[in-house]
Amino acid sequence: MNEFQIENGVLKKYLGRAREIIVPDGVTEIGIAAFSRLKYTVSVYVPDSVKRIRKQAFSHCNYLEKVRLPKGLKRLEEHLFDESIALKEVILPEALEVIDGYVFYGCETLEQIELPSCLREIGPWAFYNCKSLKEVRIPASITHISHRCFYGCERMTKVIFPEGVTEIGKCAFFYCDALTNIQFPEHLTHIDDWAFSGCIRLRKLEIPDAIERIGDGAFQCCLQLTDVTLPDKDFVIGDHVFERCKALKMLRIPPNLKLPHAILGKNPQTMLFAPHLTLAEIPNGYQTAVFRAFVRERKAYTEEINETYTALIRKERQKLYPVAVEDHALLYFMLAEKMFSLEETEHFVENLIERGDSELTAIFLQYKHELTKDGENDAFSRFELDF
To answer: What's the pTM?
Structure first.
């Protein structure tokens, strides 16, 4: 029996069990799922006579490690190597222009891929869950990174964007755990929803001046992110963009950027430095984040905002006390401004003694002593200058 079912130059199906397959020269097309679900094959050689390889041709080949593609091939059709979990090496032809969606979906052992210079399109989900892929250099002809294109590439440490990229799609680099640094192209205008969410080792971001939109949750759960630079312009920025970025101590909002309602998500731990905001412009639930930044950099705020924020902190002192116990800059500011009454102080001391917090107990006992001296030699004014 002939292992190759060929009709009019089209290889319809491979029926053999060979470990290494060489497609006969003269075949011009490989049909849909022609080699799909092979159980024994490790490598396939496709001759240059082949001009088209249809979708799913090598999908779900659990032992397939290497495929040689023809030099003149211009398109990889969708699901071509879908879930071929042993695939390690594919040399893409220089003539290649399009990689359709899902082409390398779930190719967990694919470690490297060199994208040719003629490539102008990479489809959605193209490299989804390629867990071993370590580095990608996007060719200069690409302007758009499709949604979920590199989703789940958890060992990818580096991605190099050309200057021509203007848009990064939804969830494009979601859960790329090993990414530590990203150099965005100068002309990037759109970072879509959740584009880099879950990139837990990402440390620094510098958003280019050309940006027009950052979508919801774009950098959510980037747990080691410590430094963010936003351009001083008005652009669309979504909700939850920096939610649960636990290492991001302070987010600085430029004067010309309108603050969205939930840029840090609910109950933000990150301080929000925005000295241009009036009280009415602070989003609901963000007052504490703003006040924590304010007490550290009061000189950056106008006299009017200084007075307004100070008065509100005094008014909300009972609610802010649990935060201040953990954030000593806020606590020392409140003590320097003598915001707590003698009765409140005695209550705090009792609670702190019960908790066994000797350091804060001593601080409040000193504060109580100063209160009873009618404000003479205010010992707590120095703490305001320390932060």
So the answer is: 0.89
